[in-house]
Amino acid sequence: xxxxxxxxxxxxxxxxxxxxxxxxxxxxxxxxxxxxxxxxxxxxxxxxxxxxxxxxxxxxxxxxxxxxxxxxxxxxxxxxxxxxxxxxxxxxxxxxxxxxxxxxxxxxxxxxxxxxxxxxxxxxxxxxxxxxxxxxxxxxxxxxxxxxxxxx
Length: 152
Hints:
Blueprint (H helix, E strand, L loop, with lengths): L1 H19 L2 H22 L3 H15 L9 H9 L6 H12 L9 H11 L9 H10 L15
Helix pairs in contact: 2-3, 3-5, 5-7, 6-7
């Protein structure tokens, strides 16, 4: 009889615990680890396409709730991904940083440099559009491109 009471009490405690630990909380606490994994993939994948895919996954992660649980060191790691020469990666990284707004303000000088480099590039797509929208989300007014209109 005591075993049945103990088992019933145990099941009740598990159900109560389940009600108080929502899946959203579990996902949010795991978000930083998933972001760090995406950062590692951006740094270590062996082809440009795979690094771009990893950067896009990073962007998808930063669109989720719970970014307040992502620490400043992790944001700084995301900022460091801007140092690549791969424009497709910088595009997705810039969009990822937009989600953090002023928490990623350490990226502003690097974003402004990228914008100057990419704004006048004669290619179909650059990171400039993502960089421009990220700077605006941080409250920074991007400088005009200064491109020679004859080049376009």
